[in-house]
Amino acid sequence: RMLTFHTDVRSPKWQEMAANPQVTVVGYCHQRRLQLRLAGRVACYAAGSDVARAAWRALPQHTRQTYTGGPPGEARTTADETSDATAAETGESRFGVVILQASVLDAYQLQRNENQRALFRYSANGELQESEWLNP
After folding, report:
1. Which of 39, 41, 91 is CA-nearest to residue 61?
2. CA 115, CA 118: separation in Å to the nearest integer?
3. Where are the beta strands (DSSP E) in the chain?
4. Rounded distance, CA 134 to CA 110, Å?
5. How many CB atoms lie within 10 A of CB 55?
6. How far is the CA of 34 from the CAs of 13, 30, 105, in angstroms?
7. Which CA distances in Å does 104 have to 32, 82, 117?
8. Which residue among 19, 67, 118, 129 sits deepest, i.e. has the most Cβ atoms within 10 Å of its Cβ?
9. How far, in Å, CA of 66 to CA of 29, rounded?
10. 66-76 as b/e, with b when 16 or more CB fall inside 10 Å?
11. In angstroms, rounded to a whole number, what is the distance separating the alpha carbons of residues 135 and 108?
């Protein structure tokens, strides 16, 4: 029931999650035609935390480079604009880890006929409290 993802700590979503840790995350797999919506509470781990340091060390270099540019959503002057980072900047100071502990999972399986949807609710300690089939 835990989902871990990374983001740039300069992004608006980082600030929003820090202010209100109750979130909903939606994911969709085109190949399997499966949509998952997870609602729960997040913990945010900024650069310098043990969690962020460990995750940063595990990233391949090409992924680390995505954190060396300008702030997310900021305009660029050209498509091939180089990073504003100095040679010493690794991007690690901009790297954050978000861990979601889901309390609700809404799973929606798209099919040609008879789409299926199920809802799962979990207790604070992770045990399944209830589940039910829903009309899509």
Report:
1. 91
2. 10
3. 2-8, 22-29, 34-45, 95-109, 116-122, 128-134
4. 13
5. 18
6. 24, 7, 13
7. 21, 42, 13
8. 67
9. 23
10. ebbbeebeeee
11. 10
Q: Are 95 and 56 in contact (CB under 8 A)?
A: yes
Q: What is the pLDDT along the chain (136 residues), one digit of tens a residue?
A: 899 999 999 999 999 999 999 999 999 999 999 999 999 999 999 999 999 999 999 999 999 998 988 888 888 877 665 554 444 467 999 999 999 999 999 999 999 889 999 999 999 998 999 999 999 9
Structure tokens at 83: 């990073």
* Structure token pair of residue 20: 């209100």
Task: Report the alpha-carbon distance of residue 35 to residue 20 in Å, rounded.
Answer: 24
pTM greater than the 0.90 cutoff: no
- What does the DSSP 8-state code read for residue 90? -
Residues 6+ apart with CB under 8 A from 31: none
